Amino acid sequence: MRHSLAGRAETSMQARLLAQLRDEGPLSRVQLADRLNVSRTTIAAEVGRLTELGMAHEVGPAASRGGRRSTLVDLAPDIRFVGISIGATSMSVGLTDGRLSVIGTRTRACDIRSGPEKVLATALDEVRALLDEHGVTEPMGAGVGVPGPVDFHRGVSVSPPIMPGWDGYPVRDAVARELGCPVVLDNDVNVLAAGEQHAGVARTAKDFLYVKIGTGIGCGIVVDGELYRGVDGCAGDIGHIRVEDFGPTCACGNTGCLEAFSGGAALAREALAAARSGRSPVLAELLAEKGDLSAEDIAVAVARGDAQAVQLIRESGHRIGQVLASLVSFFNPGLIVIGGRVSKLGHGLLAEIRSVTYRRSLPLATGNLPIVLSELGDEGGVIGAAHLISASVYAPSSAEA
Amino acid sequence: MRHSLAGRAETSMQARLLAQLRDEGPLSRVQLADRLNVSRTTIAAEVGRLTELGMAHEVGPAASRGGRRSTLVDLAPDIRFVGISIGATSMSVGLTDGRLSVIGTRTRACDIRSGPEKVLATALDEVRALLDEHGVTEPMGAGVGVPGPVDFHRGVSVSPPIMPGWDGYPVRDAVARELGCPVVLDNDVNVLAAGEQHAGVARTAKDFLYVKIGTGIGCGIVVDGELYRGVDGCAGDIGHIRVEDFGPTCACGNTGCLEAFSGGAALAREALAAARSGRSPVLAELLAEKGDLSAEDIAVAVARGDAQAVQLIRESGHRIGQVLASLVSFFNPGLIVIGGRVSKLGHGLLAEIRSVTYRRSLPLATGNLPIVLSELGDEGGVIGAAHLISASVYAPSSAEA
């Protein structure tokens, strides 16, 4: 009993030490002892143990602070994490070191609707190519993000509206079997939120929202520095919040959902309608050139001065702002980060989102509420996925296994 | 340095021990050691210290478990907490023992708009009467809930829409000065949520919402067993979430707010309109009898079979359900508790809230989501306020002071 408790405390100390090195880089034993609030003897013992395990090593001497020179401790240089960030229409896979610096990435188009076997096979092909390219034989773990609800603890996709064939699919175990390493599975917005927190604009935020506007719309929620997943793991599913009583039918079967007004798929549909009706001469031109339109074409039309395209962006931002205002009233976050493919459609979208959110929320909640674009783009998903698996690999329960 | 750390660890152990006795009642040293995962020697030392401080004492022997009989430890019988729960139109004050069992309560009508001096003077009169009645000279602390946003850390009301004169008023310090004991201030829904978690229907819930439908509408948020207050302390302000683009002007100055459709004040206004227009013969009759109508009169009219009153209740529930559905999609709670004066207007309201919430949320989030009425009524506010101050009095920073 006593022995097992002591063991757990040590492993938890290891996890904290590894996370400290991940987030801050090489530190002396003295600095580590200060940061973790334990004695230098304890730190020395832990560093020794981690060195034996091949997780940490000593690097050059620290800058002198007057006394005896201390040796810096760093994560082992050969630690590699895999990050797999799967969206509805494209995926990014990447390789990071122990500090989650990106060593290489690959991005590929994909169609989430082609089902888990095909999509995961493509992702694994890309991962293997990356591992080969960088001479990695044993990644320490892999994080996977998918664009829909997941059961985090079981590592499976759950009833994802835009992902036919994925319901109940054991994504985590399938990827772990193929790569021969521990894997965590989460939804794409949680992965992006984790990435933004580790390496992006949310580095100092404790309570924030990451809103992804892609084909669908979702939200990662961070409470006191930790991802909040909700009781069933589906917190943040804001794409299906009602914004109108009526409206286009959503993939979920309801009408009036935010996603059915403002998601990338909805915008592409609106762009087509505007082109065909003649309301937008520029979009009509683009349609004639390309044979089809995407949400991105609206940005092109805006750049060419098309009034209807400007209006589409504004309406989309307006609906998103209405929902964000509700969330601000409810959650009172310290920061909202906007990301995803559609967020890049130009400043008009963000301006409208900000304007409606600030106007519709109580002054107290918006007095100091930055609403900013994500800094990381595609790399955010890779870093976030790597972060999730690093937390799991460095943490007690996994490290003991 | 070492000394101070050890001191902090001990105080935190005291806080955990006191909270354990508060929530579970008398326990033997062996049970306490098991529950808190520390040695019996540590527990014996802590119990000794708490006995000296007059916080704990020994009671009769525990039921034998075969070995040596162990003596039960309990909170000191003379610990008294004051709970003050102020609503927009009425207040409850109460006295509890250390385990937060209610010893006495008093309820009085009040008008929050008459300003902090007058309202707090009334509350303090009631508290003093209660203290006298029960022979209490030194309460250990008091919790105060007010129906609007507060700055929890500074203990002041902040820009409350329905509370003219309260903005920036130092409620906590004013009450502490009068009662001569530590005080915490929070908003009424947080207080009610804390009460429901300690003694009501949310006892086993880790992530839940407490929705108060009174004159206004607000929401207490519990994440992982702890109240979530948001970055500025105004999380849960759901009364000002937009449900329509147009509608009656709200106290906050916007239009289309939930509260302006479904709060008690809005319902009273709707009832008056229905009575005066002749749409509701029963409400017209009640108006003639009483000279004015309140939200409660709608329930009377429903009981007398008035179709218009049924419709008013249903529309109110419908709007509330729409907002709750958004919150369920965003937050994925494990339980929603509905309380407040207006929640007692009959089963029709709850039925409509449930129906809309379940229909508009994704199946994953509502598969196991009870939506239930509060069990505690007025006592909930008293117990919740006492709970907040007990947590503060038992916890490290206050216990050190």
Automatic annotation (TrEMBL), chains A, B:
<comment type="similarity">
    <text>Belongs to the ROK (NagC/XylR) family.</text>
</comment>
<protein>
    <submittedName>
        <fullName>Sugar kinase</fullName>
    </submittedName>
</protein>
<dbReference type="InterPro" id="IPR013196">
    <property type="entry name" value="HTH_11"/>
</dbReference>
<dbReference type="GO" id="GO:0016301">
    <property type="term" value="F:kinase activity"/>
</dbReference>
<dbReference type="Pfam" id="PF08279">
    <property type="entry name" value="HTH_11"/>
</dbReference>
<keyword id="KW-0418">Kinase</keyword>
<keyword id="KW-0808">Transferase</keyword>
<dbReference type="InterPro" id="IPR036388">
    <property type="entry name" value="WH-like_DNA-bd_sf"/>
</dbReference>
<feature type="domain" description="Helix-turn-helix type 11">
    <location>
        <begin position="16"/>
        <end position="55"/>
    </location>
</feature>
<dbReference type="InterPro" id="IPR036390">
    <property type="entry name" value="WH_DNA-bd_sf"/>
</dbReference>
<dbReference type="Pfam" id="PF00480">
    <property type="entry name" value="ROK"/>
</dbReference>
<dbReference type="InterPro" id="IPR049874">
    <property type="entry name" value="ROK_cs"/>
</dbReference>
<dbReference type="InterPro" id="IPR043129">
    <property type="entry name" value="ATPase_NBD"/>
</dbReference>
<dbReference type="InterPro" id="IPR000600">
    <property type="entry name" value="ROK"/>
</dbReference>
